[in-house]
Amino acid sequence: DITDSRAGLSAEKKRVLGLVLVYQPSKGLYEHRLSLAAV
Predict the structure, then answer these.
(1) Which of 4, 13, 22, 26 is the least buried, fewest Cβ under 10 Å from its Cβ?
(2) How confident is the model at residue 28 (pLDDT cuts 50, 70, 90)?
(3) Phi and psi dihedrals of 6, rounded to 5?
(4) CA–CA distance from 21 to each of 4, 8, 10, 32, 37 (Å)?
(5) Which of 4-8, 15-19, 20-24, 27-31 has the lowest mean pLDDT?
(6) How many other C-beta atoms lie within 10 A of the C-beta of residue 2?
(7) Burial of residue 18 (number of CB atoms within 10 Å: 0-12, 13-18, 19+)
(8) Contact criterion met (CB below 8 Å) for 20 and 33
(9) Where are the alpha helices (DSSP H) in 1-39?
(10) Which DSSP letter does residue 39 get?
């Protein structure tokens, strides 16, 4: 179950399709991208 009020999700059943980590050391930036699909 996924809950994220900013994304409008509350105990939603989702399947993870992909996960991407982007790291930019020059900017001190970490970014995670999560690809979801309905179950």
Answers:
(1) 26
(2) very high
(3) -65, -30
(4) 19, 23, 24, 5, 19
(5) 4-8
(6) 13
(7) exposed
(8) yes
(9) none
(10) -
Rg (CA), the chain: 13
Phi, psi of 28, deg, nearest 5:
65, 40
Name which of 14, 33, 8, 37 is nearest 23 in CA terms. Answer: 33
The backbone torsions φ and ψ at residue 21, rounded to the nearest 5 degrees and listed phi first, read -110, 125
Helix (H, G, I), strand (E, B) or coil at 11: strand
C-alpha span between 6 and 9 (Å, rounded): 8
